[in-house]
Amino acid sequence: MINRLEALLAQTSLVVTDTQKQQLVALVTLLHKWNKAYNLTSIRDPENMLIKHIMDSLVVSPYLEGERFIDVGTGPGLPGLPLAIMNPDKEFVLLDSLGKRIRFVTQAVHELKLTNVTPVQSRVEKYHPEIKFDGVLSRAFASLEDMLHWCKHLPKPDGLFYALKGVKPTGEIKTLNTKFKLEVAHKLTVPELEGERHLIVMSEIK
Ligand SMILES: C[S@@+](CC[C@H](N)C(=O)[O-])C[C@H]1O[C@@H](n2cnc3c(N)ncnc32)[C@H](O)[C@@H]1O
């Protein structure tokens, strides 16, 4: 699988060390193994997991600004685990309300020896950390409006919200609550993934 990962990475400008490649492959292997018993993702085949989960998460990496992030509704650690592997100098809280998903994330953190990830089982509305975040991330979590509403207590005053989406959510952007504004919408290219991907970056208006 490492050859396949290297071929996919070669189609990007991402610079990934051998250790990081091994961790990414180990993550796919673990997800594939746990998925049989715990139904963590509808994508069951490791090759598809590499493209639709790992590469889809990794291409967000160059756009992260800051040191401390939370991935809300992380499910089995997506995009948070690939991003944490890619950015060992940044801290990631991976939050989900479902126990089986956070148990998987905890196991992955242990097996991959990740020291920059804290798994948290909680509903996002009820999670009030002492230290706020530079960025609030989500993929396949909620509409932009719901994400901003449920997560508005999480970023630092100048922190950003990042939502990874399919087709550009023009309607959702137009109807953003007047307290928030669109910073930028990046069109993402995920090697060998058909269909559009967008990273919507938003901030609160002060
Ligand atoms: C469709 S899954 C997406 C999982 C992952 N981000 C991905 O891209 O594969 C949405 C996740 O959000 C979680 N979730 C939904 N509402 C939540 C809330 N209010 N607080 C915390 N987690 C929530 C669900 O348990 C589920 O794991």
Automatic annotation (TrEMBL):
Coiled-coil intervals, chain numbering: none
Gene3D superfamilies: Vaccinia Virus protein VP39 (3.40.50.150)
Enzyme nomenclature, EC number: 2.1.1.170
Molecular function terms, GO-annotated: rRNA (guanine-N7-)-methyltransferase activity
GO cellular component: cytosol
Presence of keyword Repeat: no
Positions with a binding annotation for S-adenosyl-L-methionine: G73, L78, V124, E125, R139
Main location: cytoplasm
Localization (cell): Cytoplasm
Superkingdom classification of source: Bacteria
The reaction(s) this protein catalyses: guanosine(527) in 16S rRNA + S-adenosyl-L-methionine = N(7)-methylguanosine(527) in 16S rRNA + S-adenosyl-L-homocysteine
The entry's keywords: Cytoplasm, Methyltransferase, rRNA processing, S-adenosyl-L-methionine, Transferase
PANTHER family for this protein: S-ADENOSYL-L-METHIONINE-DEPENDENT METHYLTRANSFERASES SUPERFAMILY PROTEIN
Annotated family: Belongs to the methyltransferase superfamily. RNA methyltransferase RsmG family.
Role description: Specifically methylates the N7 position of guanine in position 527 of 16S rRNA.
Protein's name in the database: Ribosomal RNA small subunit methyltransferase G
Organism: Moritella yayanosii
Lineage: Bacteria, Pseudomonadati, Pseudomonadota, Gammaproteobacteria, Alteromonadales
Gene: gidB
